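JOB MANIFEST
job_type = single_chain_structure
chain_count = 1
residues = 302
[input]
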Amino acid sequence: MYIEWTGALPTETVDIRVDADGTVTVFSGTMAMGQGLETSYTQLITEVLQIPAKTIRIVQGDTDQANGVGSVGSRSAFVGGSAVVSAGRKVIVRGKELAAEALEAAAADIEFRDGRFGIAGTDRAVGLAELAARQPEKYIRVSATETPSAPSWPNGAQVCEVEIDPDTGVTEVVRMTSADDIGRIINHMIVAGQVQGGIAQGIGQALYEQAVYDDSGQLLTGSLMDYCVPRASDMPPMSNVFDEGVPCKTNLLGVKGCGEIGTIGAVPAVVHAVLDALRHTGVQNIEMPVTPEKVWRLLGAR
């Protein structure tokens, strides 16, 4: 069972630009490292602005265009995603002001639906692209900064099953099961992939990965030929379930960071599964990585 603190550096800024050709560009300081931010941010904008995903462009980490901190500490969706939604809402507010001027109506009478601004109770309306085309710069640009009121606390549990060959000391992870509370989920496939990737990293730390030096201080595991990382064939079947029943209350999305929880749970789950398998030997602790040689020597000593 585990709990994690996420949401480091809790302020992020996102800009959104709507161009006359209908393209909506999101400029974010956060940068994807494999966690699918382009997909998640696109989903958020399609939800807020009610426009097709094909019209949305996500620009990440471009310091000439974007402001913000970046990606670290499971903060990208928690902080950066909140700023994306806040900027999207600002587009609507600014659009209503511009639409009221274009349609010669009061801003209070302007409604927004499916990417268009219309006068309530009439068929008079104008789209985002049309409004952008009316501007001297031929675009509408807004900026929003979000600072969640507190970090998030994702939590969960993992169960690991291992089998050990007593003749060789080789440990095989045969099944991993996780149940996590990470608040609202934007994209289930991406979240499951992050958790599974984290579990893979945790299995690697528990069983394989080690920096080895000789007596002179020379690193002997300086390449992936010598430093062992788990391969796909080393991974067990994984079952991952999520509870969205308790949204986070400190950010606009209700999300909790999830990038690291797989690793946090897997490392102790794997090691304690090995200790459980060795309990008949009297072994109560073992140093990571739990290599076949270590297990074989412990079995041989008893």
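[summary]
Helices lie at 37-49, 76-103, 128-134, 188-207, 261-277, 292-300.
The CA atoms of residues 128 and 203 lie 49 Å apart.
exit_status = 0
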